[in-house]
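Exercise 7. Given the encoded structure of a 106-residue chain, write a plausible sequence.
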């Protein structure tokens, strides 16, 4: 099984192959948690733990015209709320339209 090599380490290997010794890569600005280091998990960056509002949630996304994002942002400001709450409201209206329970919450 092939071990994943980080981008900077791979560049260093290319330098060694070409007869040049590349400088050691700079340490990642994202610190790896002690558990990951002890477990020997990869050299890649580590994602920060999700905030308490996102625990147990998933991201749902789509690509829309920039005007859609602008209009959603304007609605959020006009109604003193945030875009996620407006999107939850829209999803619940969609669910109700198709006879499903309104289960989306922000």
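Solution.
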């Amino acid at each position: 099984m092939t071990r994943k090599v980080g981008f900077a380490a791979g560049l260093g290997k290319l330098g060694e192959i070409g007869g040049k010794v590349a400088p050691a890569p700079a340490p990642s600005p994202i610190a790896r948690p002690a558990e990951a280091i002890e477990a020997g998990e990869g050299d890649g960056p580590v994602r920060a733990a999700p905030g308490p509002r996102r625990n147990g949630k998933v991201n749902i996304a789509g690509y829309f015209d920039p005007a859609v994002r602008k209009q959603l942002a304007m609605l959020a400001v006009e109604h003193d709320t945030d875009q996620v709450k407006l999107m939850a409201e829209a999803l619940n209206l969609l669910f109700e339209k198709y006879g499903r329970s309104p289960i989306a919450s922000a």
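Remark. The mean pLDDT is 81. Students should compare their own answers with the one above.
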